[in-house]
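ok trying again, last paste got cut off:
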Amino acid sequence: MVGKLPNDADALAGMHFSAATAAFQIEGARTAAGRGRSIWDDFVDAPGNVIDGSPAEPGPDSFHRFDEDIALLAGLGVDRYRFSISWTRVIPNVGTDASVNPAGLDYYDRLVDGLLAAGITPEPTLYHWDLPVALEASGGWLNRDTVHRFGDYTEVVADRLGDRVRHWYTINEPASTSLQGYALGELAPGQTLLFEALPTVHHQLLAHGIAAPILRENGAVQAAPTLNHSLILPASEAADDQAAAGLLDVIHNRLFTDPLLLGTYPDLSAFGVELPIEDGDMELISAPNEVYGFNYYNPTTVRASEGPLPFEMVPTPGAPVTGFGPMWPIRPDTMRDFLIDMARRYESALPPIIITENGASFPEPDTTDTEISDSDRIDYLRDHLGAVIEAKEAGVRIDGYTVWSLLDNFEWADGWSQRFGLVHVDMRTGTRTPKASFRWYRDLISAARS
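nice, full thing came through this time. structure:
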């Protein structure tokens, strides 16, 4: 056996285990089956946006090689597979033409049927950042009309797949879209609106609120967003650093969780922005969900700043780091502490938690003909699963755990420079080679079931 399992792997018994991917990152086949353009096509095509200048094509090419991916999942022994559906593969020209693309839906039909035949529960995510370009041209998530177009898209997908798919996720990581995509320009669509980006938070949460009942009307037993969280640490005991950490906690964490679970937004007066809330919105957003999708990678340390933002992110002292460097510290204890704090803060309003993403990138070769011994990733996963166990022992209900990612993929603005996969992918040929972490995770799943 490679690496060690958590000492009390039996404490994970009864949990669901999964691996995750996203359409733009793995599908390739940009022009195949009539897919339209998304904001990520525009972002990647603009020089200088992707750190290594790499395209997203062909990458893993899962559009053509999904059977290989299903075989990998079956060999891994996961219960479920979290993937995403490309909005522009389903409705290629949404915003100018509402015509549905049958060939795009056919692809997801084949994927779902293949997963079910392998005994794996499909868990599609409807939106993993790939907004159609015509909608962005009309304001994107700043425009309330995008919410209604998302509802139309949900209707189409649910009508086609709802007879077989029962577990759904709606909106993935709205914090990243709002803060990195619209506020800071680090991700698509590359806008730099700072706090003027915050209306995109409300519209994404409202899109979830509209989509979830559509999915349930089509047979869903689970319809929830997946939220990315980070425990915010002050750089010092100084009052201004403590205040800066509190402000970032509000807009990175509570701005999303409070409306979903409590039906109200936290106080945003410090940011000088009013959200575009209309009658009935909060009731839709706060309707109970079956699970809480929870993505976690690392804590964030901040100090006070007098710049355009009242906080500045700094390295976390004494923490080892992933391949992303000092801004991605490895502190599994912060995941445990965040989960415990959530349970205490929200009490009965918090549904069972599913860890919908957790993983790490480390430097690895572009090509290999042998298994990569990724011991750093094994340590990361083992220690974070240990944090899950400790949170469960403290009374937090956690029903599932998902590794990001099944495959090495196109890592957004970092291109092919970061590799998260349990499976190595040669981005030129698409060749898949399971890493040592693949065997480790397989063994953990087996041990948790024994």
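cool. The radius of gyration is 21 Å. The chain is about 40% helix and 15% strand.
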